[in-house]
């Protein structure tokens, strides 16, 4: 090799690990088992298919939807030849559906719906995955296999082309409990969420002030439940949306808004802005708190794959953590109320303190 | 009822956002789904692979294809092409059909995957094979430098003298000297060498200017560093130089300039990270960028955490404000890589978590090595260690 070329090669590569590339090749395969059948969708990066199977038949450097349709049969043939599913050593039949597209970030994936038919009830699924490895030793396929309430995730790689999922065994869905625990933990360490909840409850108690004692006792539970439930529903909705649906808001904004929600809830205790409609306020800000939870859940790195079941687990955790907090606080709040004016002062002092704390958060988070 | 209605509208709006992420079928067959970057080169490589199928023993052909895949991977910051190169040369290595060039390429791929030990082993073998291979010495010197083994790195740098152009050998030596406590003298030497060897080839000049810029930053002369880096990037697309420029600008909170500088390079992970940090600082973070970065981080943690600890630490520290997790990655990274930026990062994490004991030990270690870095001094102002 010419010394100049070689130098160029060495230097450019060398410039200490300059270009850490991060795009790599992955496929996402989901199947849902039901008796001896399974349905799902398999997704492959269009770039991988172009490089290895060839999609751009006219060679104009652009792949049109027409190009993909023209090569659909060849692509399906390639995929079917490279993936073999067996139930207990008996071959299952894979039937591909009509090819679609899906965008994951800025990468286009081919989305192939599949139906799998096995000779018997699927209990021990063996998967042999051998696509792209021939040319791309570092390709990975991420499997998400669900059966009723159980979810299993597996990764096929060039070193690990045969994987097995034993669905009959007591193998639980991966880490379900761990996600419940994470949810509980998050609500407990998420001081901003707790304080918001506390202020909401103080707000409910405040609004009861104008009522007669009997009315008050009747209304207290109704309003507490309504407010906490509204908060819960709202943040469950956005949590689900943000984690499953790629609908997200900038974290800086979300966290600043959460801080703001605490401030407003605190001011409400001081100035009694909102009374009966506190649940609506809880709902509105609950939507934003949900995005905050989602950022934690996304951080636990389930990727796109094993989300749903973990999402559920996480949410269960958040709700139960929240329930414990509410249950613990109710007697305290009632106790405060019994103190009469002194209780009112304490409530106001608490709120003022929390408002100050949340203002500091707001400044920090928003970078004001 | 009005209130219920507005709640339902909010939920419906959010659900619509959910629905838009579903798979779809384009209506128009002529609709362009993807533009293939460097389609001609990829087509040429396909033809070459077919040729190789017919003449599998043509080693020159293997080397040619591998080299072109490595260039593609570098150009597009796309790891997939390094993997193609690896997959292609692996069977030749396994069956002992290789020459020095293939070994050098293999070492290059390994170091790109941060498999430093393996890369050094391959280079050792190569240097036994052909004792005076300057490229192998240079690559090994850089790996030793990254790992903080300066004595070994210096040996390899000295082996370059008389075998490559003077600027290259000088840069190698000056870089190591600079890390051993002789920073300003080394920078001065490099600066005058760059002046003197203006005729050197562009690649050598780019590397020397980059190394000099790194030194100038540590000397507290970021403006001059930026000037040299500007010269590098005006010559060619150099992601490393861009990242370095961005870091200097970020340190001076010149967020808008970072956003302009990196706008068209967001497809490169490390540059996307810096872009997001700047956008966060400027409160102009776009959902798409944040999402792309999050996906990237998830993927890294799933598949290549060991190779990307520096970036993970930086992400948790500067984007997520999670200094604890950042510290964990920064510590692991320090076991693997010991460049000035790695030290700076670990220090920032230690300060952010308030781990004063860890900080004291770490600083003591740095001082012992005679390490000079104004950025570190600046950070330590007011901290009693």
Question: Can you describe this structure?
Answer:
The complex is a heterodimer of chains A (368) and B (385). Chain A has 368 residues and is of the alpha+beta class. In chain A, α5 (191-207) crosses α9 and α7 runs antiparallel to α10. The radius of gyration of chain A is 27 Å and the shape is elongated. Chain A folds into 2 domains: 22-166, no CATH class; 176-366. Chain A has 10 helices and 12 strands. In chain A, strands 1, 2, 6, 7, 8, 10 and 11 form a 7-stranded mixed beta sheet that branches. In chain A, strands 5-4-9-12 form a 4-stranded antiparallel beta sheet. In chain A, β4 (83-87) and β5 (90-91) form a beta hairpin. Chain A has helices at 3-14, 46-52, 65-82, 176-189, 191-207, 213-244, 251-271, 278-299, 307-338, 341-366; strands at 26-34, 37-45, 62-64, 83-87, 90-91, 93-96, 100-104, 107-117, 124-129, 140-147, 150-157, 162-166. Chain B has 385 residues and is mostly helical. Among the domains of chain B are: 237-303; 304-385. Chain B is built from 21 helices and 1 strand. Chain B starts with a helix and ends in a 5-residue tail after the last helix. The model of chain B is unreliable at 1-21 (pLDDT under 50). The interface between A and B is large, with 84 and 100 residues. β3 of chain A pairs antiparallel with β1 of chain B, so a sheet runs across the interface.
List keywords for this structure.
heterodimer; A: 368 residues; alpha+beta; 2 domains; seven-stranded mixed beta sheet; four-stranded antiparallel beta sheet; 10 helices; 12 strands; 55% helix; B: 385 residues; mainly alpha; 21 helices
This entry's quaternary arrangement is heterodimer
> What integer is the average pLDDT of chain A?
79
What profile does the largest beta sheet of chain B have? none
Helix content bin of chain B = over 70%
Strand content of chain A: 15-25%
Largest protein interface, residues of each chain: A-B, 84 and 100 residues
Helix segment tally of chain B: 21
Find the structural class of chain B using helix and strand composition: mainly alpha
Mean pLDDT level of chain B: 88
| Distance between the first and last residues' Cα of chain A | 58 Å
Strand content of chain B: under 5%
Q: Taking Cα atoms only, what radius of gyration of chain A do you get, to the nearest Å? A: 27 Å
The rough form of chain B would be described as globular
Total of domains of chain A: 2
Biggest sheet architecture of chain A: 7 strands, mixed
Order of helices and strands of chain B: HEHHHHHHHHHHHHHHHHHHHH
């Amino acid at each position: 090799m010419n010394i100049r070329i070689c130098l160029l090669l060495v230097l450019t590569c060398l410039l200490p690990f300059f270009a850490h590339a991060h795009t790599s090749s992955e496929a996402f395969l989901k199947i849902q088992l039901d008796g001896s059948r399974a349905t799902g969708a398999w997704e492959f990066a269009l770039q991988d298919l172009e490089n290895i199977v060839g999609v751009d038949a006219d060679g104009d450097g652009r792949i049109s939807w027409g190009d993909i349709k023209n090569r659909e049969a060849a692509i399906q043939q390639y995929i079917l030849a490279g993936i073999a599913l067996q139930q207990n050593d008996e071959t299952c039949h894979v039937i591909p559906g009509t090819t679609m597209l899906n965008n994951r970030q800025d990468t286009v994936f081919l989305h192939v719906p599949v139906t799998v038919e096995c000779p018997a009830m699927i209990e021990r699924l063996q998967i042999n995955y051998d696509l792209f490895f021939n040319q791309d030793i570092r390709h990975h396929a991420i499997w998400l296999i669900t059966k009723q309430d159980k979810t299993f995730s597996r990764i096929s790689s060039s070193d690990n082309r045969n994987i097995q999922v034993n669905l009959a065994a007591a193998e639980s869905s991966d880490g379900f409990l761990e996600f419940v625990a994470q949810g509980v933990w998050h609500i407990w360490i998420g001081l901003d969420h707790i304080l918001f909840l506390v202020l909401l409850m103080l707000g409910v108690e405040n609004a009861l002030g104008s009522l007669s004692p009997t009315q008050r006792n009747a209304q207290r539970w109704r309003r507490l439940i309504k407010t906490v439930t509204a908060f819960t529903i709202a943040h469950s909705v956005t949590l689900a949306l943000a984690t499953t649906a790629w609908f997200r808001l900038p974290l800086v904004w979300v966290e600043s808004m959460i801080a703001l929600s605490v401030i407003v809830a605190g001011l409400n205790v001081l100035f009694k802005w909102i009374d009966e409609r506190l649940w609506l306020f809880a709902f509105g800000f609950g939507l934003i708190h949900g995005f905050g939870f989602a950022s934690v859940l996304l951080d636990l790195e389930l990727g796109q794959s094993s989300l749903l079941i973990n999402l559920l687990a996480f949410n269960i955790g958040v709700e139960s953590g929240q329930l414990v907090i509410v249950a613990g606080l109710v007697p305290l709040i009632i106790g405060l109320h019994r103190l009469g004016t002194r209780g009112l002062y304490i409530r106001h002092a608490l709120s003022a303190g929390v408002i100050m704390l949340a203002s500091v958060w707001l400044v920090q988070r928003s970078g004001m | 009822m009005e209130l219920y209605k507005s709640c339902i509208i909010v939920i419906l709006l959010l659900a619509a956002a959910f629905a838009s992420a579903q798979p779809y079928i384009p209506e128009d067959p002529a609709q362009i789904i993807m533009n293939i970057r460097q389609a001609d080169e990829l087509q040429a490589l396909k033809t070459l692979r077919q040729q190789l199928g017919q003449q599998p023993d043509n080693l020159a052909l293997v080397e040619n294809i591998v080299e072109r895949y490595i260039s593609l991977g570098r150009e597009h910051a796309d790891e997939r092409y390094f993997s193609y190169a690896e997959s292609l040369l692996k069977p030749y290595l396994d069956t002992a059909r290789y020459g020095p060039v293939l070994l050098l390429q293999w070492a290059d791929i390994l170091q790109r995957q941060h498999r430093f030990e393996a890369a050094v082993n391959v280079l050792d073998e190569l240097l036994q094979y052909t004792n005076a291979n300057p490229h192998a010495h240079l690559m090994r010197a850089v790996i030793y430098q990254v790992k903080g083994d300066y004595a070994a790195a210096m040996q390899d740098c000295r082996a370059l003298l008389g075998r490559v152009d003077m600027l290259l050998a000088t840069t190698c030596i000056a870089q190591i000297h600079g890390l051993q406590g002789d920073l300003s003298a080394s920078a001065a030497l490099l600066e005058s060498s760059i002046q003197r060897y203006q005729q050197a080839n562009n690649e050598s000049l780019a590397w020397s200017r980059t190394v000099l810029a790194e030194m100038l930053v540590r000397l507290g002369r970021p403006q001059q560093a930026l000037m040299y880096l500007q010269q590098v990037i005006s010559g060619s697309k150099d992601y490393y130089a861009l990242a370095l420029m961005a870091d200097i600008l970020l340190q001076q909170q010149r967020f808008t300039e970072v956003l302009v500088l990196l706008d068209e390079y967001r497809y490169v992970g490390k540059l996307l990270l810096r872009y997001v940090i700047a956008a966060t600082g400027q409160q102009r973070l776009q959902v798409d960028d944040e999402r792309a970065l999050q996906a990237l981080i998830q993927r890294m943690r799933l598949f290549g955490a060991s190779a990307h600890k520096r970036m993970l630490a930086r992400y948790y520290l500067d984007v997520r404000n999670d200094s604890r997790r950042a510290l964990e990655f920064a510590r692991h990274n320090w076991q693997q890589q010991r460049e000035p930026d790695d030290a700076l990062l670990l220090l920032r994490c230690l300060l952010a978590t308030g781990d004063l004991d860890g900080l004291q030990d770490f600083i003591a270690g740095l001082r012992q090595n005679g390490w000079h870095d104004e950025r570190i001094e600046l950070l330590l102002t007011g901290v009693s260690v």
